[in-house]
Design goal:
The chain is mainly alpha-helical and 194 residues long. The chain contains nine helices and four strands, in the order H-H-H-H-H-H-H-E-E-H-H-E-E. It comes from Trichonephila clavipes (Golden silk orbweaver).
C-alpha cells in the first residue's frame, strides 16, 4: 500500500532502526541502500548518522515533540463520539470534550483508529410504487436520440457553492464500511418524476 509506506516515512525511528542505521553506515553501506533496507527516507538516514557523528549518540532527546493537549480518557471519548454518531462534526466533538484543541487534532485521533471523514453513500428507497412510476417514464423516452437528451437538464449534475461551507453532511467511517453500517447511508426520497 503506497499510503502506509508514505506514513511510515514520517514516523519516528525506533531504537532498533537507529542502531541498525549506524551499524550499516559504519560498515560502509551507502545512504540509499540503508534507506531502502530500513524502509525510511534518505534524509532520516543522514540525520541519524549526523547525530551519531556529532554527539556520539543516536537516541532521541527526552521530551522532544509537542506536548499532548488531551488525556487518554479524552482521546477515547473523541473516538466513542464518532462511533456512536457518525455524522457528528469536529466542532461538536471539541465542545463536548471541553479541551481547547484544533480540529486537526480530532481528525488525527480518529485517523489513529482508522476513522476518516467521508461523504455518506446516498441510497434511494425504491419501493414498488417508485418502480411503477419509473418504468413508464423510462419506456416513454426509450426511443429518444442524442438531440432529445441534449435538451434535458438534470438538476443533480452539479453542485455550486458560493460561500465557504457547502452544508454537506459527512460521516466518520472505516475503509470498506460504505454500505455495511446504517450510520453511513443517508436515505432520502427521490424528486417528483416529470
Amino acid at each position: 500500500m503506497p499510503g502506509k509506506r508514505a506514513r511510515r516515512h514520517f514516523s519516528q525511528l525506533s531504537e532498533f532502526e537507529r542502531g541498525l542505521i549506524i551499524w550499516m553506515k559504519t560498515a560502509g553501506w551507502s545512504t540509499l541502500r540503508v534507506a531502502g533496507q530500513v524502509d525510511r527516507s534518505g534524509c532520516a538516514v543522514r540525520n541519524c548518522r549526523e547525530k551519531w557523528t556529532r554527539g556520539g549518540t543516536y537516541a532521541r532527546k527526552t521530551g522532544s515533540g509537542a506536548t499532548r493537549k488531551t488525556t487518554r480518557r479524552e482521546d477515547r471519548r473523541i473516538v466513542r463520539q464518532a462511533l456512536v454518531d457518525a455524522t457528528v462534526t469536529r466542532s461538536t466533538i471539541r465542545a463536548d470534550v471541553g479541551v481547547a484543541i484544533v480540529p486537526q487534532t480530532i481528525s488525527r485521533h480518529l485517523a489513529e483508529v482508522n476513522l476518516k471523514s467521508k461523504r455518506p453513500f446516498r441510497a434511494l428507497p425504491l419501493t414498488p410504487e417508485h418502480r411503477q412510476l419509473r418504468l413508464p417514464w423510462c419506456q416513454s423516452r426509450s426511443m429518444w436520440n442524442i438531440t432529445d437528451w441534449q435538451k434535458v437538464g438534470f438538476s443533480d449534475e452539479s453542485r455550486f457553492v458560493l460561500g465557504t461551507d457547502d452544508n454537506r453532511v459527512r460521516v466518520w467511517r472505516r475503509p470498506g464500511e460504505r454500505y455495511n453500517s446504517p450510520h453511513t447511508v443517508l436515505r432520502h426520497t427521490p424528486a417528483q418524476l416529470v
